[in-house]
């Protein structure tokens, strides 16, 4: 828990993946996310006959974004760039999110396939952080597309319960950042209409267990533990209850 991110610094992590997966791969029990990704690509790229969509996926260490990254790596063929914004604010969740994201990146590289990965840092110790994470992600996604030469076909995010106003704000910021650019990538949210349990079951269980969802982690005996009261903890407790029920004798 001693690692401190450097403010406003973007780093590029070098791939350490081997050519062949080092771990035995046990894939997920549900194909819900695989099917949704396939539908989204068909809807947007079938006319252009693009078989290798160049994807940017925004990750945070949580179930949704890690599931999205894993499924894109598994079921699509194009190059993938993952980006993690270290978000430092009053919620104090950045250190545990860094650990969860690094674990997910390592797992995916070792068991699925290689991809490029970068991070950036946003720090604002004022109020509740100054706005929506979604808006920040779309702002940064646009800048990453510019920084990488405008080669992104699709920006993928794992949001699934966002309100119309939240989506409108993210979309407006993303569009504004592409004024005077030749091309704006598609923004794809494949989880709309899915339940969190569908998402959780659409990734390898080993990987799901390494994710972190709590927005306001607590520290006890030198370890991070979920607060149990934030909206992410409440939705995860519903997932765990559904999993327990499915495992119960006679279920
Ligand atoms: Zn929590």
List the helices and strands and how they pair.
Elements: E1 11-13, H1 32-45, E2 55-59, H2 63-75, E3 80-88, H3 94-111, E4 116-123, H4 133-147, E5 154-156, H5 164-176, E6 186-188, H6 196-200, H7 205-208, E7 218-220, E8 223-225, H8 231-247
Parallel strand pairs: 2-3, 2-5, 3-4, 5-6
Antiparallel strand pairs: 1-4, 7-8
Helix pairs in contact: 1-2, 4-5
Bound molecules: zinc ion.
Characterization of the model:
This protein has a single domain (11-17, 27-247), classed as HUPs (Rossmann fold), CATH 3.40.50.620. The longest helix is centred in the middle third of the chain and has 18 residues, at 94-111. Helix content is 39%, strand content 15%. Strands 1-4-3-2-5-6 form a 6-stranded mixed β-sheet, with helices on both faces. A two-stranded antiparallel sheet has the order 7-8. By secondary structure, the chain is an alpha/beta fold. Zinc ion (ZN) is lined by residues 214-216, 226-227, 230, 232-233.
Short description:
Helices cover 39% and strands 15% of the residues.
Strand order of the largest sheet: 1-4-3-2-5-6
What CATH first level would be assigned? Alpha Beta
What share of the residues does DSSP label as strand, in percent?
5-15%
Rg computed from alpha carbons, rounded to a whole number of angstroms: 18 Å
CATH architectural group: 3-Layer(aba) Sandwich
Number of strands: 8
Q: Summarize the helix and strand pattern as letters.
A: EHEHEHEHEHEHHEEH
- Can you tell me the CATH superfamily? HUPs
Fraction of helical residues = 25-40%
Extract low-pLDDT stretches.
1-19
Span of the ends, CA to CA: 40 Å
Average pLDDT score = 89
Instruction: Enter the CATH topology name.
Output: Rossmann fold
Identify the quaternary structure here.
single chain
Helices and strands: which structural class?
Answer: alpha/beta
Small molecules bound in the structure, each named once: zinc ion
Number of helices: 8
């Amino acid at each position: 828990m001693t690692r401190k991110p450097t403010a406003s610094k973007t780093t590029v992590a070098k791939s350490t993946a081997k050519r062949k997966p080092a771990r035995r791969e046990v894939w997920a029990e549900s194909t819900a996310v695989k099917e949704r990704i396939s539908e989204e690509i068909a809807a947007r790229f079938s006319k252009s006959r693009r078989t290798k969509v160049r994807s940017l996926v925004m990750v945070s260490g949580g179930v949704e974004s890690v599931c999205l990254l894993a499924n894109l790596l598994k079921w699509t063929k194009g190059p993938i760039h993952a980006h993690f914004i270290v978000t430092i604010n009053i919620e104090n969740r950045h250190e545990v999110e860094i650990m969860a994201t690094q674990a997910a990146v390592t797992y995916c590289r070792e068991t699925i396939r290689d991809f490029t990965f970068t991070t950036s840092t946003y720090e604002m110790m004022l109020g509740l952080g100054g706005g929506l994470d979604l808006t920040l992600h779309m702002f940064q996604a646009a800048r990453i597309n510019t920084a990488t030469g405008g080669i992104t076909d699709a920006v993928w995010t794992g949001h699934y319960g966002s309100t119309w106003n939240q989506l409108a704000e993210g979309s407006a910021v993303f569009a504004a950042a592409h004024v005077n650019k030749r091309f704006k990538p598609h923004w794809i949210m494949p989880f709309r209409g899915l339940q969190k349990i569908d998402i959780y079951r659409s990734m390898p269980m080993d990987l799901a267990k390494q994710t972190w969802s709590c927005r306001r982690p607590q520290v006890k005996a030198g370890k991070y533990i979920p607060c149990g009261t934030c909206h992410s903890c409440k939705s995860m407790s519903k997932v765990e209850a559904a999993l327990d029920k499915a495992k119960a004798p006679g279920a």
